[in-house]
Amino acid sequence: MMKANYGYADGSGQYYITLDTDKCDGCGDCVRACPASVLEIVPNEFDIIDGGDIMSVREEHRKKLKYSCAPCKPTTGGGEPPCVTACPHGAITHFLSSAKGQVM
Ligand code: SF4
Ligand code: SF4
What we know:
Elements: E1 3-10, E2 13-20, H1 29-33, E3 39-43, E4 53-57, H2 59-62, H3 65-68, H4 82-86, E5 92-99
Antiparallel strand pairs: 1-2, 2-5, 3-4
One iron/sulfur cluster is lined by residues 19, 24-30, 55, 86-87, 89, 91-92.
């Protein structure tokens, strides 16, 4: 199983968005669900044999995910973010890895 990881940290802790590239079929539901246009569909470079398309975090958002994803990150109390709930294959996770002050 291949995983793509996109991490960010803010005042509350360290977060990760992960994509299980084997589960993702590039349907684009998460892209349409994201209110901040963070995601896009790109050629699957993790699987050079079967190819296809997968979700990716847009280059311009990778260094500023703490701002882009702030409205719907997992600790805001709104439940799972729209990208996670939109995925019909359960390919995306978005979680708090370590709260601020926790030893990593
Ligand atoms: S957490 Fe929210 S802003 Fe971030 S990628 Fe998912 S839907 Fe978009
Ligand atoms: S909704 Fe799920 S399967 Fe569809 S592109 Fe996004 S991550 Fe991939």
